[in-house]
Write a structure and sequence with these properties.
Blueprint lengths: L40 E6 L1 E8 L3 E7 L7 E3 H6 L9 E6 L8 E6 L3 E5 L2 E5 L2 E4 L2 H4 L5 E3 L9 E4 L4 E4 L12 E3 L1 E4 L2 E9 L5 E8 L7 E3 L1 H4 L10 E5 L8 E12 L3 E10 L13 E3 L1 H4 L2 E6 L4 E6 L15 E5 L7 E7 L3 H5 L6 E5 L2 E2 L5 H6 L5 E8 L5 E8 L5
């Protein structure tokens, strides 16, 4: 669970309407009311950037903004459960790749025009893929919006006050305190020349993809991993049941000496992909930069001018220095069941040794049903330490109890 700058209850007046009513439980912990400019798009940072939008003129949705994406995508379960999914929409099928090992897959697409309204941005999408987003991100994700909706003008990404804002032009005053980064725009994706120091001997330099759709720190491609020597380092292998359209995947987690964005962040927990297919296999960029790094900076993405600007903000969180204590990953899927589904497992971690398996459903923690745990509590972290009891529904229908002694990080 990640810490964040939380938004004020009244900011999202539309959020009381289903299916995005989960926002109503997110209250203000940091941002003073009134700091979001008129026409801006407020967001909740829960590893990913969650924004409230309206599609088809009247249907509220919870979308993540992803600079690694190119259009509107909607989740398969959202389509099955929502009123929007019951509309007589014209559909087809298309081939699409993802981050996992299964390569290109054939998926359903909407080929009707779908309008998207968020803040002062009105966008019409002609082709909308339907993919398994909630299987990767959990119940709070109805869909995903990419760069073609917002890259026609400069875009302010303000992590300090939790909003996105398009602006018609950039002035010298607006750029005060910002530094222009060595960025390249390729097919509406952003690559920035950066340096990751693995240790005193090894350095990874080159283009890293700016990826607001990544909730992690730095993820290196498989091609980059092959060039590294991790002998003697503390490492942990992790298996994911679903990494997107491309299916499952595996990576290795380890600590790097530092990552230099504007300033140098030290003792950074990074991961590198074992995947031989998909977007984390072989790419021109050496890896991607996610929100656990980016949240420490405010950004201006000037796609028309092909420039990216950044300034350090006051976020002093150290999440980038921490690895998992429960040594597994899980998703809130109380939209379709009574619990949280285990979606990733660390090899030889405490969860695996206790008996946890992929697709187990966590029903309760220390006797408290997880369906009673709010999104805000999940964001802030449950503070689990020591002997922690999990009530778990197995795939064969049996219910078991596992006890984890939560003390040490996986690396």
């Amino acid at each position: 669970m990640k810490n964040m700058s939380l938004i004020k209850k009244g900011v999202f007046s539309l959020l009381l309407a289903s299916p995005a009513a989960m926002y109503a439980g997110v209250s203000d912990g940091k941002m003073p009311y009134g700091t979001v400019p008129e026409g801006a798009i407020p967001f909740v940072l829960d590893s990913h950037v969650y924004i409230q939008a309206v599609i088809a003129d009247s249907v509220p949705v919870s979308l993540i903004y992803d600079t690694g994406a190119d259009r509107l995508y909607l989740d398969k379960d959202y389509m099955d459960l929502s009123s929007f999914g019951k509309l007589p929409l014209k559909k087809g099928r298309a081939k699409m790749g993802g981050a996992g090992n299964n390569g290109v897959q054939t998926i359903p697409i909407i080929i009707d025009t779908v309008s998207v309204k968020m803040g002062n941005v009105l966008h019409n999408e002609d082709i909308t893929p339907i993919i398994n987003l909630r299987e990767i991100l959990g119940r709070h994700t109805d869909g995903m919006i990419g760069n073609n909706a917002v890259f026609d003008k400069p875009l302010i990404v303000n992590y300090t006050d939790s909003y996105l804002l398009q602006t018609d032009s950039l002035t010298g005053e607006m750029l005060t305190g910002y530094t222009r980064l060595p960025a390249q725009f390729n097919d509406n994706r952003i690559d920035i020349e950066m340096e990751l120091r693995i240790d005193s001997v090894q350095t990874v330099s080159g283009n890293f993809r700016l990826d607001l759709g990544c909730g992690s720190t730095v993820i290196l491609t498989n091609e980059t991993l092959k060039k590294l020597d991790l002998t003697g380092k503390s490492t942990a292998d992790r298996y994911y049941s679903n990494m997107g359209v491309g299916g499952d995947g595996t990576d290795v987690t380890f600590r790097a000496q530092s990552f230099k964005f504007l300033d140098e962040l030290e003792n950074v927990v990074v991961s590198a992909s074992y995947n031989t297919e998909g977007s984390l296999s072989t790419r021109p960029h050496v890896g991607i930069i996610g929100n656990e790094i980016l949240r420490h900076y405010d950004l201006i993405i000037d796609a028309p001018g092909e420039a990216v600007y950044a300034r350090r903000n006051s976020d002093n969180s150290t999440g980038y220095q921490h690895s998992s204590k429960v040594q597994m990953g899980y998703l809130d899927r109380t939209d379709i069941c009574d619990g949280w589904i285990v979606s990733s497992i660390y090899d030889n971690g405490i969860a695996q040794k206790a008996g946890f398996e992929i697709d187990d459903v966590i029903l309760a923690i220390n006797g408290r049903p997880v369906k009673e745990i709010t999104w805000q509590e999940q964001i802030e972290g449950l503070g689990l330490e020591g002997e922690t009891t999990y009530t778990v529904l197995k795939k064969d229908g049996t219910t078991v109890t596992y006890i984890l002694d939560i003390r040490d990080e996986i690396i």
